[in-house]
Design a protein that fits this description.
Largest sheet: 7 strands, mixed
Structural class: alpha/beta
Number of strands: 7
Shape: globular
Radius of gyration: 16 Å
CATH topology: Rossmann fold
Number of domains: 1
Strand order of the largest sheet: 3-2-1-4-5-7-6
Oligomer: single chain
CATH superfamily: Vaccinia Virus protein VP39
CATH architecture: 3-Layer(aba) Sandwich
Length: 207
């Protein structure tokens, strides 16, 4: 899906993803001191707004201008401020000083574009900063529920770690992996609870 597709999807009076943060974000940042954060491919801004409410100085980046406008509205409704940028995660040029936190949640890209987005994410990461990524795991296609049904847009922890290694080499930085693996998410359906399988990767930049 390109920006126009996402614009069409977000062009509703209500939030597609509701206003609450993704369930995996709060526990992954609970041990971090609020500083600067970027929500890369932020969609309608729910994670960015939640971070701002926790005291983070937040930038939300997405290539959907409709999604970004909904993020602005959500921030205003919650009484917080954030910087909003319409840009593609694969080509965006982050500020040179970097961020203390880079969040990437459910960015659905094929392998080449995904690798470019991971390079962007690492470039956005300041020394000492943390990168948290959550995405639809490849195993979800056969053993989980929901999510993209095209395997080209699914991933594994190994895929992301390979992408990050390539970014380390190209950008001459050093990352330490803190978490990498599959996680399960309960989904409420008309037929009862189902289980979705995701990937979670958390790394810290040390140099």
């Amino acid at each position: 899906m390109d920006a126009s597709d996402w614009n069409a999807r977000y062009d509703t009076s209500e939030l597609i993803w509701k206003g609450e943060p993704n369930q995996f974000l709060p526990p992954e940042v609970a041990d971090l001191t609020p500083g600067t954060a970027v929500d890369l491919a932020c969609g309608e801004g729910r994670n960015a707004v939640w971070l701002a409410k926790q005291g983070w100085t937040v930038t939300g980046v997405d290539f959907s201008d409709v999604g970004i406008q909904k993020g602005r509205t959500l921030a205003a409704d919650n009484g917080v401020e954030a910087t909003w940028v319409v840009a593609d995660a694969t080509t965006w040029e982050p500020p040179t000083e970097g961020f203390d936190l880079v969040a990437v949640f459910y960015l659905q890209l094929a392998a080449e574009e995904r690798r470019a987005s991971m390079t962007t994410a690492v470039r956005a990461l300041g020394v000492g900063g943390t990168l948290v990524l959550v995405g639809h795991d490849l195993l979800n296609l056969t053993e989980g529920y929901g999510g993209p049904q095209n395997p080209a847009f699914l991933l594994t922890a190994e895929d992301i770690l390979d992408d990050l290694t390539a970014a380390e080499v190209s950008l001459d930085v050093e990352l330490v992996t803190e978490k990498a693996g599959r996680i399960e998410r309960t989904v409420q359906t008309d037929d009862g609870e189902r289980t979705a399988i995701d990937t979670l990767v958390r790394v810290r930049r040390v140099a």
